[in-house]
Amino acid sequence: MVITLIGYRGCGKTSVARLLAEHLGWEWVDADVALEAEAGKSIKEIFETEGEASFRQRERRLIQAFLQKKNLVLASGGGAILNSETRQKMKQAGPVIWLNATVDTLTARIEADALSRSQRPSLTGQSSTAEVAQVLKEREPLYREAATLIIETDILSPEEIAREIESQLEVILKPSDGSN
What we know:
alpha/beta, globular, 180 residues, Rossmann fold
């Protein structure tokens, strides 16, 4: 089984994946980091030199390979849900957890993260807040469609989010004993 974390950049996927995997005794991977390592360049550089279509193709192939693993927590890229086949394969592999946050929270987290600002491309060329609002509005139905569980992350620490996911997964994954 693979537990896939989805959500917009800055929602906490990487931090939560590491903690959740640690709690479960599983492995974890950040798809964006793995993609950059495989490509030998940052996501921003891939966008600049190869274009978004090439990046999305790389992302799709890599994520689909990770979804074949067992006992893995996968921090997917924020746009991984754009592909319908990828969304379907995520759901088939195990629970998909949407780490949701408000535009203000996401913008503040992104702006506070120098690495994100330097290595992630602008998707619209707009201000941070306008970009987050626009892209989140476009992706929200896809996140919702893919999600087994939605966690509102605005006021929770990564540790609290990981504990909440564990608690919810116990309910979702609890085997039915046939009695009611």
